Amino acid sequence: MKKWQCIVCGLIYNEADGWPDDGIVPGTRWEDVPEDWLCPDCGVGKMDFEMIEIA
Amino acid sequence: MNAPVVIIGTGLAGYNLAREFRKLDGETPLLLITADDGRSYSKPMLSTGFGKNKEADGLSMAEPGAMAEQLKAEVRTHTHVTGIDPGHKRLWIGEESVHYRDLVLAWGAETVRVPVEGDGSEAIFPINDLEDYARFRAAAAGKRRVLILGVGLIGCEFANDLILGGYEADLVAPCEQVMPTLLHPAAAAAVQTGLENLGARFHLGPVLTRLSKVENGLEAHLSDGEVLHCDLVVSAIGLRPRVDLAAAAGLEIGRGVVVDRHLKTSHANIYALGDCAEVDGLNLLYVMPLMSCARALAQTLAGTPTPVKYGPMPVTVKTPVCPLVVSPVPKGREGIWSVEGQGADIKALCHDADGNLLGYALTGAAVMDKLALNKALPSLLA
Predict the structure, then answer these.
(1) Structural contact between residues B212 and B221, judged by C-beta atoms closer than 8 angstroms
(2) pLDDT, tens digit (0-9, with 9 covering 90-100), for B287-307
């Protein structure tokens, strides 16, 4: 499971946790997150996230 | 020596452009100039700082020195550009002239201020950058009651955030609903009710006319005769693109600094992006369009002229008590609204005569539908 961070606001997407508020279930890999998913904090897109950690 | 690419401004626009540019060009000298302290931070986070109990230092992501190193750039802080001389490709910092290869205006927008009578006006705080936030936090320490001027996106976000941080919030604005330019009335009502359930008090219709110091705080006189008591006032009336230096240099000005799809102003070698720029007629004060512009302009500055494209640009409003996502109907388009849902969960959709989705406002549980709806939205700059 990997963690990805929004380079704009620092929000972290943890694959293990998913993002249930947007219907993304725990364990959803980054490549399976919808392409049009937006950072819940600042509104930028997937391309503005960088991988920060592989656990 | 080669003249540098010069970026004025180190907010999200300036630093993200520099970051994107350095991915493509590691050699060209790069100079960033800012009137502020040059710390890197994310402006949207200014309206979540109280709920997360973060000082300004906690919202800062990097010091200017670290940014300079990371970007292989010079970062000049607390430096005011006083003039631009497009004919000679130079700018002025007081008596000092700085030549540029290309100049990028990324100096943002300023808060709209309205005159208020009385001796309490120094207790009115705009919160438009990290330094403003630091000043407001210092002033708010130990205080309890905040009066917010404006019920737009920022006013509502601050209200939610301040209440989460333990403050009381009164909101005053001369309009009938929250976010009047952005939001369908049904969705606005849902957000307002959510904030009211949290304890926010709305005073819609009047304006603040007089702010007087009294024992134990401030007395705010509204134009309808109501008198409120508070300790501090946050001004969140609106933003206006900064254009003065550009206008003085003879650049074309509309609502913001006018640029084409290549982010080029009316003068060669001068570009603009972010909150100060009016891109092909659109002045959008949001992060997503700014990032699109930063990527396109970085390509252009690195030698590959690239027009910017905007897809759909839904806006997420940080009112966690009543989540809200809104995609305003593009300028010049007309449609019919339909509203489903009730209470906090509103799904307001706008379709044109052919059944195409033009825009939406989703609140509460209805925000779950945004990913599916975004696929059907029109692009703003195709």
Answers:
(1) yes
(2) 989 999 999 999 999 999 999
Q: Which residues form the domain of B137?
A: 113-235
Task: Say if CB B160 and CB B198 are below 8 A apart.
Answer: yes
- Cβ atoms of B256 and B272 within 8 Å: the answer is yes
Please indicate, yes or no, if residue B306 is contained in any of the structural domains. Answer: no
Closest CA to B373 of B339, B352, B349: B349
Model pTM score: 0.93
A24 CB within 8 Å of a chain B CB: no
Taking only Cα atoms into account, the Rg of chain B, rounded to an integer number of angstroms, comes to: 22
Residue where the block lists tokens 């300036």: B14
Name every chain B residue with its beta carbon within 8 A of the beta carbon of A9. 42, 44-45, 287
Q: Does A32 touch chain B (CB under 8 A)?
A: no
Tens of pLDDT along B263-286?
Answer: 999 999 999 999 999 999 999 999
User: How far is residue B287's CA from residue B15's CA, in Å, rounded to a whole number?
Assistant: 13
Q: Each residue of A6-36: pLDDT tens digit? A: 888 888 999 999 999 888 999 999 999 998 8
B291 contacts A45? CB cut-off 8 A: yes
Are B140 and B222 in the same domain? yes
Q: Give the length of chain B.
A: 382
Low-confidence ranges of chain B (pLDDT < 50): none
Q: What angle do CA B289, B174, B196 make, to 5 degrees?
A: 80
Q: Using a CB-CB distance cutoff of 8 angstroms, which residues of chain A are in contact with residue B12? A: 8
Looking at residue A45, its pLDDT comes to 84
Same domain, B132 and B219: yes
Q: Is residue B262 part of a domain?
A: yes
Q: Is B331 on the interface with A (CB under 8 A)?
A: no
Rounded CA-CA distance B39/A46 in Å is 25
- Nearest Cα of chain B lies from the Cα of A55 at a distance, in angstroms, of 23
Structural domain total, chain B: 3
- Distinct helix (H) and strand (E) counts, chain A: 0, 3
Residues 6 or more apart from B357 whose CB is under 8 A from it? B349, B350, B351, B373, B376, B377, B378
Which of A21, A36, A43 is closest, CB to CB, to B315? A43
Question: Residue B18 falls within a domain, yes or no?
Answer: yes
Are A38 and B42 an interchain contact pair (Cβ–Cβ within 8 Å)? no
Q: Would residue B311 count as lying in a domain?
A: no
